[in-house]
Amino acid sequence: MDSTEEPAGCPARGTCPVFLAMSAGTVLYAPSGLCPALEGNLREEPWGTHSPPQPDQGLPPSLAAVPVSWKSAGPCQGHRESPGALVETSAEEEAQGQEGPAAAQLDVLRLRSSSMEIREKGSEFLKEELHRAQKELKLKDEECERLSKVREQLEQELEELTASLFEEAHKMVREANMKQAASEKQLKEARGKVDTILFAEFQTWRESPTLDKTCPFLERVYREDVGPCLDFTMQELSGLVRAAVEDNTLTIEPVASQTLPAVKAAEVDCGSTNTCALSGLTRTCRHRIRLGDSKSHYYISPSSRARITAVCNFFTYIRYIQQGLVRQDAEPMFWEIMRLRKEMSLAKLGFFPQEA
To answer: Where is this region: Disordered (predicted)?
Structure first.
């Protein structure tokens, strides 16, 4: 037979401080460990007419749903504690709950203060670095500007110097060209005058060729070329050589490995291959001359041989003209004679081929 059991009421329902606090709305939930009778009354039993009115907040939550852990207090002993002690305990807990957010807020303020201080110091450091960098950049800009001005000045001076040098060089070249043109003109005029005279004398001689050195043409050649070219230090032997050249009786031979006995001429030992018989100078003599049918030989230096050979070539050519062996016009013949005269002049000055 089913019977509905009524929940047991709290024996200290009228005097329990927890019950009174919850009924007044001061405490919204009861700690764990209350007596089963109180728990059941607080959770399920409706309030009676003799009980205080329920608060607006409604019934307290189930004890199992309360996350706060309370120490087990055993059976309800509310009749031993006064309501004033319970209210004091609740006030302390509320004060501690209020101190927690205040302390957290204070910590946040401290962190914000420290962060602001660090930010200010970092900002000051960055400003100082920026100022220093700007100062260095300004100094570098000034140095770059100074170097740029120096470079522009050097480039300008270089351009001016280059222009001046080019102008001076062109001026010197122009003056040299003018002088050269004037000299060539004067030389051409002088050569034209001289050539005209010489060519006239040559044409007169060519009409009746002769070896008489009293004619104007040969007299000029003797005076300007033949005489100076055959004028050696040893005057006596020089006269003999000139006569032999005019008579075409002079012979020039290379010196053999076995030399012939030496002879003397004008108190000079001409038999030595190290002394020139015409100049008297110590020279290596690679040739010797013989005059006419004489058996005597005279050793001569390369310079003396070149002078004698130049004169002999000139006389050989005019003999060919005299004998009619040269069949050319007057102008080519004249220029060949001028070339032979040039060779005599060069030999007289000491210019001769090395094989001489």
So the answer is: 39-103
Q: Is 42 left (phi over 0), alpha (psi -120 to 50) or beta?
A: alpha
Task: Report strand pairing: 287-291 vs 264-265.
Answer: unpaired
| Cβ-based neighbour number of residue 308 at 10 Å | 24
CB–CB of 219/210 below 8 Å?
A: no
State the angle between helix axes of 330-348 and 302-322 in degrees (0 to 180), rounded to the nearest 10. 160
Task: For 261-285, write each residue's pLDDT tens digit.
Answer: 444 444 334 557 889 999 999 999 9
20 pLDDT tier (thresholds 50, 70, 90)? low
Task: Judge contact between 251 and 297, C-beta under 8 A.
Answer: no
Distance in angstroms (rounded) separating the CA atoms of residues 312 and 340: 10
Query: Is residue 305 a contact partner of residue 248, using CB atoms and an 8 Å limit?
Result: no
pLDDT, one tens digit per residue, over 316-343 is: 999 999 999 999 999 999 999 999 999 9
